[in-house]
From TrEMBL:
Coiled coil: none annotated. SUPFAM superfamilies: Receptor-binding domain of short tail fibre protein gp12 (SSF88874). This is Phage tail protein. It comes from Hymenobacter rigui. Residues 28-84 form the Phage tail collar domain. InterPro entries: Phage_tail_collar_dom (IPR011083), Phage_tail_collar_dom_sf (IPR037053). Pfam families: Collar (PF07484).
Length: 200
């Protein structure tokens, strides 16, 4: 039998299998849709609290991973404002457990997160090269007057210096910045009914 004929004979069976798969989802399967409602047998992934008694199969798969008290209620995943990632740990990456939530839409930098940098400033002190014991030094040199102690003596054209601090004008506004990656909002829905998924 030729390969083409065999393919034609198997095609209807393949189509039927794929049709069944598409028409009947796995319980707990999540799909993405472009419309703004959940089809029959599905629910939007918005963290709704459901009754265990009315959704025993789904609860057996999800448990309280996404919320609920585990006695009478459990919760659906809440993907509002969230980007889904695969759980577990990849090479060189951090471990993420199923249902873990993290991240924020905005963030305000703290001091330890800022790049290392310096602020510079300058100070001008009027002075002259006259004797420090002069009664009326020209240019307001820093010294005691000539009638008392202590006295400051220095050579002409000397340089005076000492420790001190300078306060610069404040910079920045301490406002949170946008922390969002480029995004497109779509409709995530989870199957409440369907085929119970068996393990490999």
């Amino acid at each position: 039998m030729g390969g083409g004929l065999l393919a034609n004979l198997l095609a209807p069976n393949k189509a039927a299998a794929f049709g069944t798969q598409a028409d009947t989802p796995f319980i707990g399967e999540i799909m993405i849709a472009g419309f703004n409602y959940a089809p029959r047998g599905w629910a939007m992934c918005e963290g709704q609290i459901l009754s265990i008694a009315q959704n025993t199969a789904l609860f057996s798969l999800l448990g309280t991973t996404y919320g609920g008290n585990g006695q009478t209620t459990f919760a659906l995943p809440d993907l509002r404002g969230r980007v889904p990632i695969h759980f577990n740990q990849g090479p060189g990456l951090s471990y993420h457990s199923l249902g873990e939530r993290s991240g924020a839409e905005t963030h305000t930098l703290i001091t330890t997160e800022m790049p290392a940098h310096i602020h510079t400033g300058s100070v001008a002190l009027p002075c002259n090269t006259g004797q420090g014991t002069s009664n009326s030094p020209v240019g307001n040199v820093l010294a005691a007057d000539g009638s008392g102690l202590p006295q400051f003596h220095g050579t002409a054209n000397g340089t005076m210096g000492g420790a001190g601090s300078v306060t610069t004008n404040p910079a920045g506004g301490s406002q949170p910045h946008n922390n969002m990656q480029p995004y497109l909002a779509l409709n995530f829905c989870i199957a409440l009914e369907g085929i119970y998924p068996s393990r490999n």
